[in-house]
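Final report, section 2: Outcomes. Of the targets proposed, SpoIVB peptidase is the one most frequently requested by collaborating groups, and we therefore present its record in full.
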Amino acid sequence: MRKKIGIVFLFGLILFLISFYFILFYQIPGSFSLIKGEETFLFEFPFNLSINGERDISLEINGRTINDIDDISLNPGNGLKVKANQIGKVSMDLKLFGIFPFKSITVNVLPEIKVFPGGQAIGVLLRSKGVMVVGKSFVESKNGHRYYPAREAGIEVGDTILEINGSEINDKLKLASNIQKIAEQGLPLSLKIKTQQGKLRAVNLKAVENKQGIYMIGLYVDDGVAGVGTLTFYETEKKEYGALGHEITEANSNNRIEVREGKIIEAKISGINSGKKGLPGEKLGTFFQTDNVIGDIVTNNKFGIYGNLHTIPNNPYFSEPVPVAAISQVKIGPAKMYTVVNDGVIEEFDVNIERIYQQSYPGDKGLIISIIDQRLKEMTGGIIQGMSGSPIVQNGRMVGAVTHVFVNEPTKGYGVFAEWMLLQTGIYEMNRASNF
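The predicted structure is given below as tokens.
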């Protein structure tokens, strides 16, 4: 009996140690970023660790200049503080008690980047490459029969029509016109399709003439979107910007829209639909294509939209640009958010960073943010649509942007790290080239 209890106890102890090992393992990211010239606290560990590895730049660990990373000891409870005076990359191998291999980490030393936080309300006009399929239907012919040409040809919602009979298509009106002309000649249609999975394929089908004499193939299509969002940051030397913090998708398929052309325009907020539990709120914005064009849209990806500025915006809270925080510099605690809730006036609001996900690789949901500003909660109910891209500043650094609202708890939502947004631009490369 005692032997069985001992075996069970030993098994339980081994299981506990393995579980504890993996908990500690995943608490330390595989990659850290820090800013050149700034000492940064990376992590604290409950056991003795030794650190060795390879590097090509000068490094200070816990205040001591190291020529070679060779079995540096980190005592239990002592945090690891690193400072580098050169841009580059350092690989470190961690060993428990100096014996057992634990984890390899990479430290990326980045140049200090300064940008102006945004907060401006922007109208977004985006035109797609090709014509997007957003729905399917039937075509009722002159004799009253229903036909499904597109469905029978295998065209799906989320596909994109790139060509019709060898002619490039980027406009839904041109698509309709070409279908009519080709069908009136008695010719079949040959479509070049890009599927949701990114594959190209040829589709042959025949249009059906409806009761009004219009030839149709049974599709609903679109060639762009328009909406209201928030400018996140802008840089005045290279004249680049980032906005939204998340990708723009086609509503029916939820596929990212490939950019053919686009622009961001100065917008005004004319009203607010407050958010409630289970019902997200929204900003009601107005803008016109003839209004002040702030810039063009070059890129639409999971971290937002990016492009070049035509005019330099203004945030009255910042007369000078602020540093962009490395992820390791972002802290749980109070911060400021900048956004427009009335007309075109940027306002400053109190938020709290409640949770930080230590991401080793770029990800779109790195922060959990809560609105603690009572006035903003009374005006909007919390985070609302149109607030995406609102910059978050903490301790004089831009740390991220609001991206998503928790539908069932609208005072909270996700944010994306500013570091990941900056990596989508050429600003880091420009500064890396000028720093040695």
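The longest helix spans residues 2-27.
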